[in-house]
Design goal:
Strand content: 25-35%
Strand order of the largest sheet: 4-1-7-9-8-12-13-18-19
Low-confidence stretches: 1-28, 52-82
Helix content: 10-25%
Radius of gyration: 20 Å
Number of helices: 9
CATH superfamily: Alpha/Beta hydrolase fold, catalytic domain
CATH architecture: 3-Layer(aba) Sandwich
Number of strands: 19
Length: 350
Amino acid sequence: MQSGNLAHRAASVIAFLSLAMTGSASSADDTTIALAKQGSFSSPVASCRARASTTRRKTPATPTKATRSGGPDVRPVPGSRQPAHVSARAGARRCGTGRVWETTPDGREGYQTLFLRRGFSVYIVDFPRRGRAGFPSYNGSFGQVDGAAIVPNKTNRAGVQYAWSRWRLGPKYPDVFPVQQFPMKGLDQFMQHLVPTVSDDPAVISGALVALLERIGPAIVVTHSQSGLFGWLAGARSANVKGIVSYEPGFVFPQGEMPAPIPLYKGTQAAGTPVTVAEFANLTKIPIQVVYGDNIPKSPIPDLVADGRRAQQVTSRLFVQALNDKGGNASVQLLPDAGLYGNSHFMFSD
């Protein structure tokens, strides 16, 4: 893949900031969690320098934030299991934060504590230029360092009407699906947690995730939506990835084996991102599960925002088949097939 020369040369990377907790509950129904250790850390991947009028200064690296339960130097509590559980948060049209793994929008427990109760260390990741990680400061116009454009001079943040059909809150704003598990009373809370973000560099982000894994050791990586790509890249490049569970992601395919674009109601959608044959082969060495919720169109519909998710689900079958044809252990789980109905794009928040 292209590594983003300008981004590496100028100002675009990175550190991982983590909040560490390793713990357990004394019984299955105990609401108390005993923490062995809690803290945070940054794991720099790269830095750059920018000229000032008379001196040179180091431009702050974009931090990648990882709220983490458990850590590289944490002694697991009795009964805790390894590898760790890494929740890589992106998605939400690049404007969500790791907060979605901490609690649900209506205040129930999130994956952070649910997995702690099961004895796992948990790291919740915010990637460079997004979420709680923030983005670099610039010595010129937004996105420019010494006159060079590092990122576009714009930000992105999903609005509620875009989110409504893309994230499957309902067929169209403001209608709600008859069977809907997303906690609609927490919708305002959910939308308020979204933050503006700037453009992404997959090579930089996956490199930062690999660096985190080098620090914490073996882990099961859990990704969502757009962060799916970064999880695949990390799994393809780090032996510390011992398994991947990905909620409604995009996909990768070997160079020269990319499927044809998936037809939409109008136009097509690219099947995925190319990786090297060797990188794809590394993904066949670990168990992989792709998970989809409910209310995804069964056939093309005029709402292209929602229709894109249908096309993505079609691609998931091709991805899993490509892995398994090469000896992999991959599967697609459609939650309705398991008797779970009404789940949105954020099924871990439902």
